[in-house]
Amino acid sequence: MFPVVPAAKNLSIIRDAEIENTIQAYAAPLFKAAGLVPSSVNIYLVKDRTLNAFVAGGQNLFIHTGLLVRSENADQVIGVIAHETGHIAGGHLTRTNEALRNSTAQTILGAVLGVIAAVGTGRGDVGAAVIAGSQGSSIRSFLRYSRIQESVADQAAAQFLENTGQSAHGLLEFLNILSQGEPLSTETQNSYMRSHPMSRERIESLQTHIAKSRFSDIPSSEDFQTRHRIMRAKLLAFLEPKTIITGRYKETDNSIESRYARAIAYYRVPNLEKALPLVDGLIAEQPNNAYFHELKGQMLFENGRVQEALGPYTKATELMPGSALLRLGLARAQLESNNPALLQLSALNFQSALQREPRMPFAWRQLAIAYGRTNQPGMSALALAEEALLLGNQRNALYQAGKAETLLPRGSIGWLKAQDIREAAQFLDREKK
Fold first, then answer.
1. Three-class SS of residue 128?
2. Is the C-alpha dihedral spanning 209, 63, 352, 320 positive or negative?
3. How many folded domains does the chain comprise?
4. CA atoms of 216 and 45, how far apart (whole Å)
């Protein structure tokens, strides 16, 4: 919907299990309506203040934090996702790849996947990784869609919303927000304005659809609206200074999102004396909310109170055992606890997280440390080989894979995996040359 042309030279991806799950919940019905498998479409958050979203590298949807923060309700975000789903379902990325020829397309795809892999904070909160320099420039060029494609995606979005019994009012509202930027100069106007049909044309088209739709006056569920308010509060609290948060979410505001935002803002200062009572109050009200337990674990862990962090992280993982990011937080706390009895559990939790999300170099390195501390040098070398391969360090991947082959029993699963990594590194090295 809004091609990425950021003012900065970098593209930053942030991770947060709660926000990602909220976006997935919004998107799943639309993906199904488009004939896509929801679990096959990857959603990533771009740390950028502009009102942008884009698809790249196949079925990868990127949404700017600026868009999420500026959106006024869940329906607007859903409308944007519907439009981007139109790009995926319409095969626009495939045609763009052909236009750019395979070499350029593959370079950009590699960069997109690389930034996903490089998210190395190992945390389930907002943490960043960066694509920089010429790759960022290539991506910005790659993500310019034609006006025809944008119009087609608009039409597809309206149909997907109709097929899922949802109103297109949200998308219309968001276009009205964007239209406020059209009088700006080329230097300052949103990048959307320079490569998409003028929003007034799109507004007129959507108005025609809404006038005929039987779902036009149906708002999204209250659950979706609540999740939207919480998502905005959380993003703002992690990305903005405390003074802005406490000014926006005042002490007199006892809503969930207000207390959540203030808890995060105080913890970032850090001021745990104010942060912990707020998060404890949230947990008391919603004891089965895994994200509140995760936040408490994070607060304690990052302030050196590792032993105290184990309980909240464990509870978060018990409540959401399928979340790789939450399990990663628990595994880190177990590893850093310096408790020999927890080392094996730490390794198991790193393994579990990596089974769900294998493209996390940070987790592979932490797993290598856990293996090292439990006297498993062969498995430690194997984990370091995985990390090196993801980071594009073929030389180190070859070295660590060879070391693992030497140390692991011949014919074992780890030994076979080391051979696979060595062959993959050799192939990538030849391709690079």
1. strand
2. negative
3. 2
4. 29
Residue 428 and residue 282: Cα distance in Å, rounded?
49
* Tokens (6 digits) for 20: 């990602």
Tell the residue number behind the tokens 């609206």, with chain if given. Answer: 225
Q: What is the DSSP letter of 257?
A: H
The whole-number mean pLDDT for each consecutive block of 10 residues of the chain, a chain of 433 residues, reads 35 90 97 95 91 84 94 96 91 48 41 43 41 46 58 90 96 84 40 50 88 92 97 97 97 98 97 98 98 98 97 98 96 96 97 95 96 97 96 94 97 96 89 71
* pTM of the model as a whole: 0.84
Task: Give the contacts of 6 (CB within 8 A, at least 6 positions apart).
Answer: 48, 50, 136, 140
**Alpha-carbon gap, residue 167 to 170, rounded angstroms:** 7
Show the domain range for 145: 11-212
Residue 181: inside a domain: yes
For residue 371, is it within any domain? no
pLDDT tens profile 393-429: 999 999 999 999 999 999 999 999 999 999 999 988 7
CA dihedral 231, 299, 126, 187 (to 10 degrees): 90
DSSP notation for 328-341: HHHHHHHHHTT-HH
- Tell me whether residue 225 is in a domain: no
Q: Is residue 382 part of a domain?
A: yes
Nearest residue to 261 via CA among 280, 281, 238: 238
Six-digit token pair at 262?
């203030």
